[in-house]
Amino acid sequence: MHDFATMTTTGNSAPADETPVSLPGFAVTGLTPDDATVQAATMLIVLLAAEGANVAAMVPVETGLDDPCEAGSRGSLIRWAAGHLDDPRQVTPFALEADRSAMHAADASGTLLHGAAFDRAREQLSEGRSVLVVSDAVGMLDPITPSLTMLDLIARWELGLLLVEPVSRWTVGHIRLLASVLVARGLTVAGVVLSDDGSGAAADTEGVIAIQETLAALLDCPVLLLPRVLSLHDRGELLAAARDCGMHRLVTRIVPRPEPTPERIQPR
């Protein structure tokens, strides 16, 4: 178990021309973020909270919504998982009605997306928290604006990456492609989560093990298999699933242990 109690960040505000003070944490993403991506993010948040972390959870932009954190949205799920009644406008700074890519959805609604607004929401949400988990709902390289992607935000906030990818014959190639982009940006691949997309590929146990061993050797990180859960709103089931699949192995790769308090020597 990790002691997160003293690992809080306060006074996060930074001038507009400076990089914001970073909070250790994870971005959970994939080549095409899907239901498995948000399940992995929710499991991670529940695990971190159970181990004493004060989690800030965020979906920076989500499309196909009328309001931030509306029922059934990714933002509402991770907000619940973190256990806070955070302002939905900070959890999901931009909720866009059109079910399109972020930039095109923003154009359709006449919404101006800009990096400073994401930074401001992150800073407000992170106040007093010990770890940040960002769940990507649009894709790392899908443009948010002509000059901004989710990858740019992840790099700016110095987050470790948890890559979620369905099991298939192309899994290793897809993850290596993503990892090469991340390494070029100086980012850390904290782990990989393999999911079952219903194609039947995940039923090939030997094939899954081969993929896990290959990626673990190439990336030097944990490669986990995402378990099935009956309900994404059952905290106990999510916590058990996170522990059973080995998700705790990711935590120490990104979230540092607090320095031990030196014991005082009592005078004789």
Overall CATH architecture: 3-Layer(aba) Sandwich
What overall form do the CA principal axes indicate?
A: globular
Domain module count: 1
CATH topology: Rossmann fold
Order of helices and strands: EHEEHHEHHEEEHEHEHEHH
CATH superfamily: P-loop containing nucleotide triphosphate hydrolases
What's the tally of helices? 10
Radius of gyration: 19 Å
| Unreliable stretches | 1-17, 257-261, 263-268
Tell me the number of strands: 10
**What structural class results from the helix and strand content?**
alpha/beta
Strand portion: 15-25%
Spatial ordering of strands, largest sheet: 2-5-1-8-9-10
> How is the main sheet built?
6 strands, parallel
Query: Alpha-carbon distance between the termini?
Result: 35 Å
CATH class type: Alpha Beta
The pLDDT mean sits at: 87
Q: What is the helix content? A: 25-40%
Give the arrangement of secondary structure elements.
Layout: E1 25-29, H1 35-50, E2 55-58, E3 61-63, H2 74-82, H3 88-91, E4 94-96, H4 102-109, H5 115-126, E5 131-135, E6 143-145, E7 148-149, H6 150-156, E8 160-166, H7 171-184, E9 189-195, H8 205-219, E10 223-225, H9 235-244, H10 248-254
Parallel strand pairs: 1-5, 1-8, 2-5, 3-4, 8-9, 9-10
Antiparallel strand pairs: 6-7
